[in-house]
Design brief:
alpha+beta, globular
Length: about 150
């Protein structure tokens, strides 16, 4: 029996991936699109359950992905040149996992072939995030579930 070639996320380093391969690593969890608060003294980051102003919290999708950098200057675009940002990403984030030498989880859409598997696994923000326009004070929305 012929041996199957290793998938690209096993075979290649992050820096060797094509733009399409890089984009496909995103599982669509939208946890990185939750508003965060930083303690000014300790620098500690706290997640909230409030979505960024461009996040559709039901679909877990950015509503204006192509213009996000202009519309939301705080939106961090992950690239191989800003690997330092990966450590702030949720522990389930594929970019963080691969940068730490770990495998993709079995619910990842690249493994299941189904973009909804991230929602079925309960990993995404679907059903538990609040739209920014309805949130009010972010301090009232600090949560621990993204980690
Ligand atoms: S946390 Fe990572 S996998 Fe999840 S939406 Fe953000 S970039 Fe994609
Ligand atoms: S601008 Fe779009 S991609 Fe960036 S944090 Fe907001 S919803 Fe997410």
């Amino acid at each position: 029996m012929l041996e199957q070639p290793a998938p690209f996320w096993v075979d290649k380093s992050l820096g060797e991936m094509t733009p399409d391969e890089w984009e496909s690593l995103c599982d669509g969890c939208a946890k990185c699109c939750l508003e965060k608060l930083e303690d000014p003294d300790s620098g500690e980051i706290s997640f909230t359950d409030v979505g960024c102003g461009l996040l559709d919290v039901d679909a877990c999708r950015c509503t204006d992905y192509s213009r996000r950098a202009r519309l939301m200057p705080d939106c961090q675009r992950l690239t191989i040149t800003n690997v330092g940002l990966f450590k702030w990403m949720p522990k389930t984030c594929a970019y963080r996992l691969l940068s730490e030498g770990k495998d993709l989880p079995d619910w990842h859409p690249l493994i299941t072939g189904d973009m909804d598997s991230v929602h079925r696994a309960g990993v995404s923000v679907q059903g538990r995030a609040v739209p920014a326009r309805k949130a009010g004070d972010l301090e009232d929305h600090i949560v621990d579930w993204p980690e």
